[in-house]
Amino acid sequence: MKRFNLLSFSVILISVIYIARLFYLQLLENDYNIPTLNSSAVKVVYDYPERGYIYDRNGILLVANQASYDIMIVPNEVKHLDTLEFCNLLKITKEDLIKKTEKAIRYSTRIPSIFLAQLSKTDYAFLQEKMYKYKGFYIQKRSIREYPVKSAPNVLGYISEVNEGLIAKNPYYQIGELIGTAGIEKTYEEVLRGTKGVKYIQRNRFNKEIGSFKNGVFDTLPVPGKDITLTIDSKLQQYGEALMANKRGGIVAIEPSSGEILALISMPTYDPNLMVGRERSANFTKLYLDSISRPLLDRGLQAQYPPGSPFKIISALTALQENVITPYTTTTCHGGYKYGSGAGSFMKCHCETGYPIDLNVAIYRSCNSYFSNAYRKVIEKYKTPYEGMNVWNKHVESFGLGNYLNNDLAVGQKGNIPDGDYYNRVYPNGRWRATATISNAIGQGEVLTTPIQLANMTATVANRGFYFTPHIAKHIEGVPLDKKFTTPNYTTIDKKYFEPVIEGLFNVVDNPRGTAHWSKVEGIDICGKTGTAENPHGQDHSIFIAFAPKDNPKIAIAVFVENGYWGSRWAGPIATLMIENYLKGKTNRPLVEERMFNGSIQEEYNKQIQGNLRH
Amino acid sequence: MRSKKNNIFLGIDWLLVLFYFILIFLGWLNIYAATVTEDEYEIINLSSEYGKQIIWIGLSVPIILLILMFDAKMYEKYASIIYVTSLISLLGLFVFGKNINGATSWYGFGIFSLQPSEFVKATTALAMAKLVSEKMFNLKNLETQIQSILILFFPAILITLQPDPGSALVYGAFIFVLYREGLPFYFITVGITALILFISTLIFGYFITLIASLVLFFLILIYFYFYRKRAFKRGWLKIIGIYIMSALFIFSIDFVFNQVFEQRHRDRFNILLGKTADTKSIGYNTNQSVTTIANGGFFGKGFLEGERTKGDFVPEQQTDYIFTTVGEEWGFLGSSIVIILFVLFILRIIQIAERQKSKFSRVYGYSIAAIFFTHFTINIGMVLGLLPTIGIPLPFFSYGGSALWGFTVLLFIFIKLDANRIYEW
């Protein structure tokens, strides 16, 4: 190269390199240039749609929205603060002020953060006129929940600030946003919340906003949340809660023909409005820490109890299906059932018959011997008890027992229905026989169910052999119901075996010698079954399952009253009152009703606490 | 004849003048875009930087006329005096200088400041032209070599001490001139090698540099041993000698840097070399600058429509980072056109320089082509994130009176010299 060409050559070479660099930056990198959206140049402003309302099946508004006001702080704008006056105004201490300010500074000195959350309308009206005096503080309006009906907190759930773990998993949520944390708010979070709108705002490096970013091409409009109509009958729910006053337990009522949950009661309950507003976290902590009555435990869904005598229905149906008994098979009960040679191998019975009884009598007198015998015949029909146990397990689980119902409720428990493997684990040498598991026949022993499982089992019997998965959402604006809620699940029991069992259940209430005859309601054919489940912590649980009317049933219900002594004492009247209330719209048994409203088992619960303290 | 000589516009290269005004006009548009705010948008607004720039542009016209009025021969005749005077003006800064942004590079005249180093480029070019055009000048000669280097050394060292090492770097441009005028090629080789060793030692440390250079020299030895047997026999001692020299050089850099320099010097170098991750100042600048340019896309956002320009994200956008405005608002298309304009402008200077009959004019022209080229390369290279952050202006684009007038003087002395070539016999 000639010497005088070096400079010209360099000029051209450098310019080619620079144009290539421009090409790379402006044409290749620019294609994925959207990351500038996350840069400091662009402020993201969210436009929150109104959360969907929640109605009961008759259109009664259960959950609405109300305005709430947060006091926001921008730490580096705070100037000349009269702390004493300010603290008095907000009813906080100086320590609170310092702590809250430090927390805000830790987050950011320039970006607003919440100083005091969720003030009521009255507080706001008072503060509104004075806030202008305090530089760096302002009031931001938000939308929070309001519960016009003080009922069913376990069903409705609540919303709370999203936690950091969830923010990391789900990019939709930003710090400080609200999310459904329990109940229907949780399961239908995305439906209720809608989709927030996003606005991108261009700003300069002093964080001053200077207009819309790229003329708003990335901006989105908010999609409003959808309203949900629940399957819950709010009047029935409230009536049930009133009946359960001062008693612990759960009630689940289901419409058998659809699987819709009419009432889902967990006692003790609390006012859902406690989960809203400035006192929310204090209230939550109080409820959460109450380890004695555990109000946050949804007893209808989460409490696992031995089902007791209502489980005899399953024992009967299983034995009929396996052809080991017929409705006319008789057993004579001599005050109990001896299932072994040892002195301890004896199950007591209170059926007080003493003569050969058939299936019908066995059901309405709740004879332990009859069903133990039938159960043993099922297990012993097969070569090994292991095999027999598995066959039995298959039948029982087809009623939706022993597993999650896989529905639209936020919580649940599996319960327990043992199978052959279960007993192989309990007796590792494999030497166990039907008699070792005999308590299963009468719903004791290893069998555990939740009230909703029991209610679903009742609905299955009412339907004569199938059930729709129990669910809580009846209708969502513009969204069809999940198919799994509209497809029937069939049991392994033939339809023909249900009628004789239902006849027995009808007699439980109808026959003067039936265990729940006292709960008979004029004009309604109720089929029911009492239960008294032993439990190691205190008095027996009072259980009652029922459906009505006998033909074309409209409601199936399971009532569990913890430590309620026996089935017909609390659970029976409560269940039948609810049926009466639901079917007739009113009840005609003021004395019974009065006794339920005012009856309390608190003393029994107190005894347990004292007992625990003594240990 | 006399009347013709009185016409100061006679013989001037109108093409260069056209380039000059186009570049200044485009530059001003971008300064306007980078500094205009929504509440003040009048073109004549003396409180704003785009308004002041109009004044600087206006005042450059009498400067041009003044330059053209002088006899071209005067520049050659008084080159030494002009050069020495300008060096004194640099020295005077240490006494009367005004400190702006940490560098004492300005003389303050009330509201307005003048940066003499912007004009010293022109005086040094004159001095160099004068030296090279002397009859005894021979760059193979050690004495000449030393003289040439001293002419560059004085302004460079005075500017470095201001401290404004970026502006001092521009004097490296004269390597093109000296090479053009016969500087042996090995000077360039040695210069580039020294530069590479210097940067490598500062970035990677002396140990790695030493090992790497040892491997390289070993490979060269092997190459010579197998493929250039004869050269190897003659030169192996020389190759080993060069390596030993390099090793000593590396050690001395390390020693000077860590023992002689103070921390603030080291910081400056480290930042210059991108060794210190300084995201808040230097790293921040480059990041903002590159992002802003990328935001332009092919056609750009349009005049006054650049989001990041409007958002004032790029620091010093109207001065050193003015090209980011071009990049964002005019896109790939506009930026490429601006680059091509600069290329044509510089090539035109070289072309005219090569046609000069006077050696003085040729060397001067070649010098200013190299200076424009160096500014162009360093400034745009920095803005595009290809070179470390060295704050020197982009000719005719960057805001600032001194720089504008400095480049104007630089260019129009050459235009005058060129116009006078018809009288050179």
TrEMBL record, chain A:
Pfam families: PBP_dimer (PF03717), Transpeptidase (PF00905). It is a single-pass membrane protein. GO terms for molecular function: penicillin binding; peptidoglycan L,D-transpeptidase activity; serine-type D-Ala-D-Ala carboxypeptidase activity. Gene3D superfamilies: DD-peptidase/beta-lactamase superfamily, Penicillin-binding protein 2a (Domain 2), Penicillin-binding protein 2a, domain 3. Residues 249-575 form the Penicillin-binding protein transpeptidase domain. GO terms for biological process: cell wall organization; peptidoglycan biosynthetic process; proteolysis; regulation of cell shape. Residues 48-211 form the Penicillin-binding protein dimerisation domain. NCBIfam families: pbp2_mrdA. This is Penicillin-binding protein 2.
From TrEMBL, chain B:
This is Cell wall polymerase. It is found in: Membrane. The keyword Transcription regulation does not apply. It is a multi-pass membrane protein. It holds the Pfam family FTSW_RODA_SPOVE. NCBIfam families: RodA_shape. It comes from Lutibacter maritimus. The keyword Iron does not apply. GO terms for cellular component: cell division site; plasma membrane. One of its GO terms (molecular function) is lipid-linked peptidoglycan transporter activity. It comes from the Bacteria. Keywords: Cell shape, Membrane, Transmembrane, Transmembrane helix. One of its GO terms (biological process) is cell division. The chain crosses the membrane at residues 12-33, 53-71, 78-97, 144-161, 194-227, 239-257, 330-351, 363-390, 396-415.
